[in-house]
Design goal:
Chain lengths: ~500, ~475
């Protein structure tokens, strides 16, 4: 073979390869850079930096949601059913205000007729540098240059990872936008008081640091003035719905503890005041949802709330509950300060036995003997069988009906050490009862994926076990303890 | 503009080749060289026109010094001019590359608080300045034949070598720049150049990058490393730096060859060396040539007695360390090699009697050990690694380090054929990468030799095309972002 033929053959193979790979990537387009998802494939939407620009360019929508991980559980389907809006969700986990500015600007470039922009306002994002990004964005997906697309077209991660994954997904099921960036299934067992408390690196009842005087953060001003307000003023026909997410009350406690709480409030107040100067702005202040923010069983850490709260947020956009206006702004912030500062955080310090040994089980049951407590109990046969010794112990402590047989399912409510409701059966049980103003729902494994005890629609058994106990304190009017007996270790596990 | 970028491979290089040979075909005289110079300036401008300006000022200054040598016949004046020229070049290098290092060191030693300024660092300035010094010294020695301003600037800015060498001598380039035969498209050179370029690209993109990922993973969490993992990242860096730098040089040589220009080889299977002396004869050859001809010999070389020879060697390696980077770690690295060179020289007879396998093991281990200082960002970081190596805590292999070797294409193939080998042995790819790297550096011919024996065929054509395609799709990755890392 002569050199010339070698050269042309090599170039021919390379160019053909480039062409074929490019056609494949353009056709399937896992990052939606050229078109919206193909109907015959189920796309996983889980790579925010790479897929968000394609989403805002090519998807059909009239509204969008942006923000941090705080908006990731909001469901487009609920926006449709409650608000009749076709929304797309383009969050950046841990994203900065600059991240939001970039993606919202891109959305307006391609959809000038956006009706609503729902924008989760996180204090940390407002305090970040106005030019900083959470991570470097792949510019080739954000710019308008076709030349830079080569980084997308000739990309082995796209070719050998994203596309095979997409081809594996080619089922009848269409792309599900409710699951986009949604971690609720992955973390469904993590909503519990224990998860939240484990994130709090400070004592619950302690001397607090000196209050730091309220100062306006320069970054907050810069972000509001340069990353947010220009978009609001440039698009007067779009309604901007800003909302401060409902972090758990312990998030604010950590601010209180370090003395920065008043400072945080001052900065939020500045942001809200500036935003409310515009007619096309609505602001919602969800830290006021105290009944939710103070129930740690609806959180997986200090900030991240459950799907139930996410649904309530969408409801509020419709009912205008927790909306903050120029008229009620001062009152709302004042109320929030008073509520947060006067809250009894000691209610989260459990005096209950930490069950690290089998012997602790007995001591734990004894501690339930109080007239203050309503104990909800569920035995789920699908997940194991109570041992005779355990049955004896439970009976001795008035926690089990006398005629219970170990091969049966059981639901039971005990108040003031007396059984007020009990039902056992050889079949799985699923029941909702009303007692003392509470709506208590029980479900055993065969009727649900795992055992479940819900009180007023809040799940208190995130990882249902064979024996589950939920303790409601009538004085504090809240669930103060929840635990499940593990079949393998025979130890009580605290939620 | 890196050679391993889309803009270079799919845009700049093909256009540059076409324009150059089109002009060569249509005209003669100086025009092709002017075009090649413009191409080179465009290449550099892509990085920063401000930096280009700095280098142009530097080259212009050296041209004036050349004129001084050329027009003035006084030997005494020549010496003054030489001193001024070297000071001028070293001054530029010192200002742009070392100012902040010197200020930092001064602050540290004298507990002062001098301000550190943001100074731009022109790409390839270390190579550029050394090359300018060779020109100045050769001018001083009256060894410059047939000077031409265009050729001088082309020699200074020739794009395949400007960013990372090799460090060229004016005369070896001038002959080629002025050779009319080299202005015609030569398919033999074009194919050999393309082949060498693709091999270099593969070394850099497909091998060095993988080792780099493992090394970065290890260095990001040094405190958790035990002896095994410290060893793994130490040897991984040994391979990373070789594949990276020699790959880049292969690409430079390949590109130059496409333009019918032969650049001197910079690597000759250095990890096959039995002694440190041999290593430096095979590693970064043009740098060693520079140090030997332009510093070591003028200092007296080995002509002034043993002690003076040792001192000269230590001076050379101290400068070499400093030249490699503005950090104390590079100086320590250079000094370690200097000391090793001196020891090798003192005990030459005894070392010659060692078993070759033992000699190789000692040499390779020393080189790898010294690279720790080259890679570490601080002395403390280097000492942490050494501490981990010497603790003899034989921990499990860090799964994240091993995972760096589980490259996407292998996972794709395993998934395709439903192999679960990586589940059974997560370290499999790491072992294979190391085995291949050892085999490659010890048992195979280096790319220069492969290129010399290269015969175009359908098989080599397909191999070249696959390597090019594979490297192309490996240039950009996806940062997998595990969401919810709020």
């Amino acid at each position: 073979m002569n050199e010339k033929r070698y050269l042309f053959l090599t170039l021919k193979i390379v160019l053909t390869g480039i062409l074929l790979i490019s056609i494949l990537v353009i056709y399937l387009d896992p990052f939606f850079h050229y078109h919206k998802p193909l109907a015959s494939f189920s796309y996983d939407i889980e790579n925010q930096s790479y897929q968000n620009p394609g989403i805002v360019r090519h998807f059909d929508y009239d509204s969008l949601i942006c923000g941090s991980s705080m908006v990731e559980l909001l469901l487009p389907s609920e926006f449709k059913s409650i608000l009749d809006l076709q929304v797309v969700k383009v969050p950046y986990s841990g994203g900065t205000s600059k991240n939001m500015n970039i993606i919202v600007s891109q959305a307006f470039e391609h959809h000038s007729d956006i009706k609503n922009a729902f924008w989760g306002l996180d204090l940390y994002a407002l305090k970040s540098d106005k030019e900083s990004l959470k991570m470097d964005l792949p510019e080739y997906l954000y710019d308008e240059s076709y030349l830079s697309d080569v980084s997308y077209l000739l990309n082995k991660e796209v070719l050998l990872k994203q596309i095979p994954h997409l081809l594996d997904n080619s089922v009848e099921k269409a792309t599900d936008f409710d699951t986009a960036y949604n971690w609720s299934i992955e973390y469904k067992n993590k909503y519990s008081k224990n998860s939240v408390l484990s994130q709090l690196n400070m004592p619950l009842v302690a001397e607090r640091n000196e209050i730091i005087p309220a100062n306006l953060d320069g970054n907050v001003v810069a972000n509001i003035q340069e990353n947010i307000l220009p978009l609001v003023s440039q698009h007067p026909d779009t309604k901007f719905v800003f909302f401060i997410p409902p972090y758990s009350i312990l998030y604010w406690y950590s601010d209180l503890f370090s003395g920065t709480f008043r400072n945080s409030v001052a900065n939020m107040e500045y942001a809200v005041t500036e935003l409310l100067k515009y007619d096309n702005v609505e602001v919602f202040f969800f830290p006021s949802m105290i009944e939710n923010t103070s129930n740690l069983y609806q959180y997986m850490d200090l900030m991240h709330y459950s799907p139930r709260i996410a649904s309530q947020i969408v409801d509020c956009f419709s009912t205008k509950k927790y909306q903050i206006t120029a008229a009620n702004k001062d009152e709302t912030f004042q109320k929030f300060i008073v509520t947060t500062e006067s809250f009894d955080y000691g209610v989260y310090s459990s005096d209950f036995v930490v069950c690290q040994a089998k012997e602790d089980f007995s001591e734990y049951l004894q501690s339930l003997q109080s007239k203050r407590y309503i104990v909800c109990l569920l035995v789920n046969r699908d997940l194991g069988k109570l041992h005779e010794s355990e049955i004896e112990l439970l009976k001795k402590n008035n926690c089990l009906i006398n005629d219970y047989e170990s091969d049966k399912y059981l639901i039971q409510v005990i108040d003031n050490c007396q059984t007020v409701y009990a039902e056992s059966s050889a079949d799985p049980l699923s029941k909702t009862i009303s007692y003392d103003g509470l709506e208590i729902s029980f479900a055993s494994a065969s009727t649900k994926t795992s055992a479940s005890i819900m009180i007023d629609s809040v799940e208190y058994c995130p990882e249902g076990k064979l024996l589950n106990l939920v303790v409601y304190d009538k004085e504090l009017q809240r669930v103060i303890d929840s635990s499940g007996l593990r079949d393998d270790t025979r130890l009580l596990m605290k939620y | 503009m890196p050679f391993n970028s889309f803009i270079f491979m799919l845009g700049f290089l093909p256009i540059a080749l076409w324009v150059y040979f089109f002009v060569c075909k249509k005209s003669s005289g100086n025009l092709p060289n002017i075009i090649l110079l413009l191409i080179s300036l465009c290449f550099y401008t892509y990085t920063s026109w401000m930096c280009l300006l700095v280098l142009i000022v530097c080259a212009a200054g050296n041209y004036l010094f050349y004129l001084w040598f050329h027009l003035n016949k006084s030997r005494a004046q020549h010496k003054i001019a030489l001193f001024m020229a070297v000071t001028f070049n070293v001054g530029i290098l010192g200002y742009f590359k070392y100012s902040n290092f010197f200020i930092e060191s001064f602050n540290l030693i004298f507990n002062t608080n001098l301000t550190i300024n943001k100074i731009l660092l022109p790409m390839g300035i270390s190579f550029f300045i050394f090359q300018q010094i060779t020109f100045i010294v050769d001018s001083y020695k009256n060894e410059i034949d047939n000077f031409s301003l265009i050729d001088f600037f082309l020699y200074s800015f020739f794009f395949p070598s400007i960013s990372s060498g090799p460090i060229l001598r004016y005369n070896e380039m001038l002959v080629q720049f002025s050779d009319i035969e080299r202005k015609k498209i030569n398919y033999t050179n074009m194919t050999a150049g393309l082949y060498l370029f693709s091999l270099g690209l593969a070394k850099k993109v497909l091998l060095a990058q993988v080792f780099a990922n493992a090394v970065n993973t290890g260095y990001d969490d040094l405190s958790s490393l035990g002896t095994i993992n410290a060893l793994i990242i130490t040897f991984a860096y040994t391979f990373q730096i070789y594949f990276d730098f020699s790959g880049y040089c292969d690409m430079a040589l390949g590109i130059a060859k496409m333009f019918n220009i032969e650049l001197p080889a910079n690597f000759d299977s250095p990890y096959q060396s039995y002694t440190i002396t041999e290593f430096w004869a095979r590693w970064h050859i043009t740098l060693t040539r520079f140090f030997t001809n332009y510093i070591y010999i003028p200092l007296g070389g080995s002509r002034k007695g043993e002690i003076r020879t040792y001192i000269n060697i230590l001076i050379i390696f101290f400068i070499s360390g400093l030249w490699h980077g503005a950090n104390i770690t590079f100086i320590v690295w250079g000094c370690l090699h200097g000391v090793a060179m001196v020891i090798t020289r003192i005990f030459k007879k005894q070392i010659d009697n060692w078993h070759p396998a033992f000699k190789w093991t000692v040499t390779f281990s020393f080189i790898s050990f010294a690279w720790i200082y080259f890679r570490a960002r601080t002395l403390a970081e280097a000492h942490t690694i050494i501490d981990r190596l010497l603790r003899f805590q034989f921990d499990d292999i860090n799964i994240f380090i091993a995972d760096a070797f589980n490259i996407t294409e292998i996972q794709f193939i395993f998934d395709l054929f439903h192999f679960s080998l990586l589940d059974i042995c997560p370290y499999l790819m790491m072992i294979l990468f190391f085995l291949f790297a050892f085999y490659n550096v010890l048992c195979t011919k280096n790319n220069m030799k492969i290129m010399k024996e290269f015969i175009p065929s359908s098989k080599t054509s397909i191999i070249t095309a696959i390597i090019l395609l594979w490297s192309l799709v490996s240039l950009t990755g996806i940062n997998t972002f595990i969401y919810f890392s709020f």
